[in-house]
Fold this protein.
Amino acid sequence: MKASLTVILAFIKLTQLVSAAAIANPDVQISLNIDGDHVSVDKNDNEKKVEKSQLNSNRSLLDYMFGFLMDNEADMSIAENKNKKQALPLSDELSVLTMQDDYQVPDKDDLRDINGSSVLYRGGEFGGLVSFAHLPYANCYDPAAFDDEKFDIAVVGAPFDTGTSYRPGTRFGPTGIRMGSRRLAPAYSVYSGFNPYSNWAKIVDCGDPPVTPLDNRIALDQIYRAERAIRNHKTTGKSKQKAPKVFTLGGDHTITLPAVKAAYEKYGKISVIHFDSHLDTWNPYYFGGNITSYQAMNHGTYLHWAHEKGYLSDNCIHAAIRGPYPGPRDVQHDIDCGFDRILARDIDKIGADGIIKKIKERIGSTDAPVYITVDVDSMDPAFTPATGTVEPGGWSSRELLTVLDGLEGLNVVGGDVVEVSPPYDSAEITSLAAAQVADSIISLMVLKEQE
Ligand SMILES: *[C@@H]1O[C@H](CO)[C@@H](O)[C@H](O)[C@H]1NC(C)=O
Ligand SMILES: *[C@@H]1O[C@H](CO)[C@@H](O)[C@H](O)[C@H]1NC(C)=O
Ligand SMILES: *[C@@H]1O[C@H](CO)[C@@H](O)[C@H](O)[C@H]1NC(C)=O
């Protein structure tokens, strides 16, 4: 029964195809010639001028798009609708939907909007493979091309989630954030009139390096080698910066360790501005792993390790902190790691301006190399529910974006947005917020070098 139904359906499909082929005449097309006249061109390249009255005579949408048959008398009569079923006249209300008489749909070989070289119509959000904000894709991992493949800022994904202590799923974060970024470009900020993607900087998307889900030691090393390779590329030379700046799409927060290491190798000690509900400087022998050193490396301890390894300056700062401290000595250990703390509720007392001032004072100099890392749990779960360790009572996405934009002037050499777990998301709410965070931090990189 099922088999015979398939055969019947296939037969119907085939007859439809055959009859469609008999009706359409792809060999004849109306186009503009060199003098600007409308002509019909048959398969032997014979041109025939088309009178304007014929052109405007009740053409259907398909006639507009694909041309109509004009090969001989019989075809002319079809074009003039003599043998064709007449369309009902349009009411005035509906006539607003008809194309303007002099509008020329693109020629059938015109690919400008299809290949992205021109924008003829709205809809680019959906075109192409999904890169961050439709940035061009670059192969950033061929040592032979480090000199010739030049760019100023690179976006890279780190699909890693095996350092998380609660909700997994951030291995899908880079893809989720890229999906959330499709409406970012071309677009100008209503606050600053600024569009980072059509400014001086060449910004590319390096895709994601492979990251093994089976061994964190290997995975974090893969991310480190990718970040290092990206920073070894030459820049376009349009600013004084010597090496590309890198923005990473996480991944759970452990990925910040290899990213900061690669930045440290280029710039020396890095000042980290860390937006998060948790400190993440936890003493690994206390928090989540004092049995093996493998356990001791996770998304709550990577800043402890970054400090231990000497990558950090003593001017680091956290903001939006509110997650409970696992132990009474956490704050002292945090201070020992070089950090100050801004708590989530401080924004109610000193406002976004007060937060911005405090961060800038802590960093001290506009030359100091800064790395901004944003855990989306710095925002309230109302704005970013799909994350690893959710803590109520956080900042709104507007508050965080205001603070980020206020950091203009700092020398941001790297950044990331992490802990987006798309499997927990709804309506892309978390991915959209993360994409906007990335947009703000990339803007800081572009604005700094424009000074
Ligand atoms: C278009 O069709 C309408 C209604 O069928 C008819 O009145 C009108 O004359 C036609 N126009 C042309 C240019 O053929
Ligand atoms: C896009 O197609 C047009 C032809 O319609 C061609 O001239 C142009 O070079 C193409 N651009 C790219 C980037 O492929
Ligand atoms: C591990 O930490 C716990 C407290 O969190 C402590 O009770 C235990 O003695 C520690 N074990 C080792 C081997 O340090």
